[in-house]
Design a protein that fits this description.
mainly alpha, two-stranded parallel ribbon, globular, Fatty acid desaturase domain-containing protein, Cyt_B5-like_heme/steroid_sf
Amino acid sequence: YAGEDATDAWTAFHNDKGYVSKFMKALYIGDVEDWDQNETEIKKDFRKLRKYVEESGLMKVNPLFYVLHLLHILALEVLAYLVVWHWEGSMAAFFVAAVLLATAQAQAGWSQHDYGHMSVFPSHKMNHIFHHIVIGHIKAASSHWWNFRHFQHHAKPNVIKKDPDVDIAFLFLIGDYIPKSWGSKKLGFMPYNFQHSYFFFLGPPLLLPIYFHVENIFFVFKRRDYVDLLMTVTFFYKFFWLYGPYYGGWGAFGLYMFMRFLESHWFTWVTQMSHLPMRVEKEKEEDWFSLQLATTCNVDSSPFNDWFTGHLNFQIEHHLFPTMPRHNLGKIAPLVKSLCKKHNLPYRCSPLFTAFGDIVRMLKKSGEIWYDAYYHG
């Protein structure tokens, strides 16, 4: 946000503004004269909505929700082990346990997301501790790696060179600008006009089992983040201690990778359905509200969809209010829709499988743009 008004972004990310402000003294340069004269109607209306959110208690947590969510993750893990124990490490138990463990891992992914966004405890310290426990010990990933990637994404979703989640041109070209630019410059080594087909082989199956493992390991060792490394080690010690006696070392490793393979499909489709079909562009220096609505979309709400997606089906509201407890996101959605209608901004919401299909349709369209620019531009 260098050179921009980052007021709404800063407000959105920090629920303890007094505490965070202490760290800003060293960054102080001076005051901008008449900064409030550039406050547009959209900014004014969104800041009123933000004030209503804070005053109406929508930032307050229902502790029981998160307790039950964590307990159901642990119950799935216990059930997976009991299946293997009861059937004495049979192949049928292997596959049933993998499904149960993949479900636990997917749900733990949504759980760590809550702690990472400081939306569970009022204390920064407690959120960080539980984030380390859930993403490290339960999921075998780095807390700091997740923060490093995810907050860049939230600050500038789908903005080229600022959102790491759209920096995937070595395999896929997304949006309109990137494929046109690459095609006109004769760049790229993949047959991008077929990317909507090879996505099924290189996207969901490999994102977690291959790419995220490599990136996690590289990040932890490059930064010498030994705390995150230790948490990851505790996961693997527990996993091989539980399943090694039944399947051996390589069998337990196979169970782990198959679990990740299943989880990766779940994770990829859910996390990409809300952003990839939307605009992917260079920096436009838009206000917070307009940026999030242009790059984010929702999926219809239902008890199953809410559970299956970890309430990321309310991606618009989550991006506008990232520290809001997710069980409250649906409550603010009607007011967000009204504000969009007032300012003639699109509020996109689709059925779950339509949203999944939008990913493939976007890849096909972007591939065709690249092909035309490359061969006919």
